[in-house]
Amino acid sequence: MKSLLSIQSNVAHGYVGGRAATFPLQYLGWNVDNINTVNFSNHTGYGHFQGSAISGSELTSLFKGLHQINCKYDVVILGYIPSADLIDIVSGELIKLKEANVKTLYVCDTVMCDQGHIYVDKSCVQAYRRLLATGVADVITPNQFELELLYGQSITNSQTLRDAIAYMHNTYKISYVVLSSLSCSVLDIDAQDLICCVVSCSPLTHEQSNDTNNGLGNGYTPALQVFCITEIKSYFTGVGDLFTALLADKLYASPDNVGRAVNQVLTIMSNVLRLTHQLGVEEYKRYQYELSADLLAEGRMNDGDSMRFFELRVVQSREYYDYKGDGVFESINI
């Protein structure tokens, strides 16, 4: 049976972090082990929460236990890690896991910020750079703001986008860079209701990228595949966590066609978000909240009264996860 280690947040209520990732992966046939970097009552978008982060000693102890029983994984997913110290611990432990199984696929979602709002300490940026410098990550799935933090410069046009992605390939020998969300204005696409997803693949497989003599130097310029997706007007949480989990599944199945894997995931995510919004609006109405003619119900950041209606409908969306088509979105190459 396929085995996967998920290292990310956990909430008692709602669907973010491991709660957004675990059920879909299990539904797809994965044996999922979880290390919870935080245990919160609910996600922080409600404006208030209770709980705590794991300590460094507890995190080290959990990894020690997994090593003692000789756990090996086909895929490892990294999600939200709240501090630089914890990122450094994870980095060292991932090296040990990779030594145990060099074929393991490592998918790293550098969860640091969203829509320009940073929700980790700034020291995490340098810690993620140190993690990536180990060469352990095969896939990264940052959003635009996170890529800008890792690159150290703003992304304002197609050239700076290409430069940033090339930097990730060349500096950290990352096989697949999947930019989960990008403002269309960067690519001079005039559409306020669209959001872009950008895919780049190095000429190396993730196994070849582990070879220090692989020949990938500082001159590699990536070809970029861009998907444009209609954006639903609402604030959803856990989207990146579910996206990364599904991408890990699809990419593990088809490592030679990352564009197809991403299109599959975007197709699934589009269905999940539409269903989430539809059911959220219906539930909102059942609670007799007024909807004005010009404003649909939507989740709003730091507004628990609206956010609770728009938690991802992870269970209700289960029929979408095993999608095997090529995807419904057109792409352009730049």
Automatic annotation (TrEMBL):
Q: Does the keyword Transmembrane apply?
A: no
Which family does the similarity line name?
Belongs to the pyridoxine kinase family.
What GO biological process term is on the record, naming one?
A: pyridoxal 5'-phosphate salvage
Any coiled-coil regions, as ranges = none
Annotated Gene Ontology cellular components are: cytosol
What are the residue boundaries of the Pyridoxamine kinase/Phosphomethylpyrimidine kinase domain, all occurrences included? 72-217
**CDD domains per the record?**
pyridoxal_pyridoxamine_kinase (cd01173)
A single Pfam family it belongs to is Phos_pyr_kin
Q: Which domain of life is it from?
A: Eukaryota
Major enzyme class: transferase
PANTHER family (alphabetical): PYRIDOXAL KINASE
Enzyme Commission code: 2.7.1.35
User: Native species of this protein?
Assistant: Metschnikowia bicuspidata
What InterPro entries would the database entry show?
A: PM/HMP-P_kinase-1, PyrdxlKinase, Ribokinase-like
Q: Does the keyword Nucleotide-binding apply?
A: yes
What is the name listed in the Swiss-Prot or TrEMBL entry for this protein?
pyridoxal kinase
Molecular function per GO: ATP binding; pyridoxal kinase activity
